[in-house]
Design brief:
mainly alpha; two-stranded antiparallel sheet; ABC_transp_permease; membrane; transmembrane
C-alpha cells in the first residue's frame, strides 16, 4: 500500500484490542458482564451455576459466527441484514443434503457453506457493481432467502438426527461443545484477518475513506465483494452450529438473528459508520447478549419484555457509538490541558 492508503488505514490498529483505548473498552465490557451476572444472580438463585455457564457458552456459537461476519461488513461501511435468512437457507440445504439426498456429512456441510457464500456473493456483486446501498440489497436478500427456504423445504422442518448432534454436545471434562471451540477459532481467525493482514487493512481503509483508497490506486470492489462472501460463509457456519444444537433444520430459524448480531457487534465497539471494529470485542458483545437473554429467562421475563429490553440495548449501543468519538475527544482535550498546565513558580 502507498502513503495514501496507509493514511486511510491508520485506524487498523484500533481494530484490534491493542493500546490503552482497546484495553479500556475490553475492561468496560468485562465490567458490564460482571454487573449483569451479579444482577441476575441476585434475582435468581439458579443463575450462578455451572449449568448456566454451559448453556450460555454452548448456545452462543451460532451468534458468534454471524457476529464475526457482521463485524467485517460493518468495518467496510456496509451492513448485512440477510444473515438470519441466509442461515435458515443454509440449514435447509444441510437438512436436505443429509436427509433427502443421503450425502456424506462432509459433502452436506460443504453444500451448506457454499450456499452461504453464494448468497454473500450475490449481496456483494449487486452492492458493488450497481452501487446500491447494502442496506437495500441485503434487505431484499432477507426476503428472497427466506422464501427460498420455504420453497425447498415445503415449509417443513427437516429432522437431521444424531449424525450432527455431536458438534453441540459438551466435551467431557471441559463443558464447552465442539461447535463453541470452532466458533472461538473463527473469532481468532477473524481477529488475525482484520489486524494482521493486508486484506484487513484494506477493509479498515475502505470503511475510513473509500475515495482515498481508490485515489491511491487500489480497487476497493474486490475487497468489498469478498467481505460479503465471508459474511455469507459465516452464516453458513452458524447454520451448521444451529442444526447440530436443535437436531433439525427449521425454515423459521434465524428470525431476528441479524438484530442480535448487530447489537453484539455495536456493543463491541464496531462503528456503524465503518473504519473501526474488533472481532474480539464483538465476541464479548455476544457474551453480553447471551447473558442478558439467559438472565431474562431465569427471572421469568415475558417474550414482549425481552424484546423490549433487547431493543433498548441496541438503541443505547448505537447512541454510545455515535457519541464515542466526541466523548473521547473531550477527555483527551481535558487530559491535554491538565498536562500542559503551567506549574507555579517555586
Amino acid at each position: 500500500m502507498n502513503d495514501a492508503t496507509n493514511e486511510a488505514a491508520r485506524g487498523a490498529s484500533p481494530a484490534g484490542i491493542g493500546g490503552w483505548r482497546g484495553a479500556g473498552d475490553v475492561l468496560g465490557m468485562l465490567v458490564v458482564l460482571a454487573a449483569l451476572a451479579g444482577l441476575f444472580g441476585m434475582f435468581s438463585g439458579h443463575f450462578w451455576s455451572a449449568q448456566t455457564v454451559k448453556t450460555i457458552v454452548n448456545q452462543s456459537a451460532d451468534l458468534t459466527a454471524v457476529a464475526v461476519g457482521m463485524t467485517l461488513v460493518l468495518v467496510i461501511g456496509g451492513i448485512d441484514l440477510s444473515v438470519g435468512s441466509v442461515m435458515a437457507l443454509c440449514a435447509a440445504v444441510l437438512g436436505l443434503a443429509t436427509v433427502d439426498w443421503n450425502l456424506p456429512f462432509p459433502v452436506a456441510v460443504a453444500a451448506c457453506l457454499a450456499a452461504g457464500a453464494a448468497c454473500g456473493l450475490v449481496n456483494g456483486f449487486i452492492t458493488v457493481h450497481w452501487s446500491i446501498p447494502s442496506f437495500i440489497v441485503t434487505l431484499g436478500m432477507l426476503e428472497s432467502a427466506r422464501g427460498a427456504t420455504y420453497l425447498i423445504t415445503r415449509s417443513e422442518t427437516k429432522y437431521v438426527g444424531p449424525r450432527i448432534e455431536w458438534l453441540a454436545r459438551p466435551i467431557p471434562g471441559l463443558g464447552a461443545s465442539t461447535s463453541f471451540l470452532i466458533a472461538l477459532g473463527l473469532v481468532a481467525a477473524g481477529h488475525v484477518l482484520l489486524t494482521r493482514t493486508v486484506l484487513g487493512r484494506y477493509m479498515v481503509a475502505i470503511g475510513t475513506n473509500e475515495e482515498a483508497v481508490r485515489l491511491s490506486g487500489v480497487d476497493p470492489r474486490p475487497t468489498k465483494m469478498l467481505t460479503f462472501v465471508l459474511s455469507g460463509l459465516c452464516a453458513g457456519i452458524a447454520a451448521v452450529f444451529q442444526v447440530s444444537r436443535v437436531s433439525s433444520a427449521d425454515p423459521n430459524g434465524g428470525v431476528g438473528l441479524e438484530l442480535g448480531a448487530i447489537a453484539a457487534v455495536v456493543i463491541g465497539g464496531t462503528s456503524l459508520m465503518g473504519g473501526r471494529g474488533s472481532v474480539l470485542r464483538s465476541f464479548l458483545g455476544v457474551l453480553i447478549i447471551a447473558v442478558l437473554q439467559t438472565g431474562l429467562d431465569h427471572v421469568g421475563a415475558s417474550e414482549p419484555a425481552k424484546r423490549l429490553i433487547s431493543g433498548a440495548v441496541i438503541v443505547l449501543a448505537v447512541v454510545a457509538d455515535v457519541h464515542r468519538r466526541s466523548w473521547g475527544g473531550t477527555i483527551r482535550r481535558a487530559v491535554g490541558r491538565f498536562r500542559t498546565k503551567p506549574r507555579p513558580p517555586a
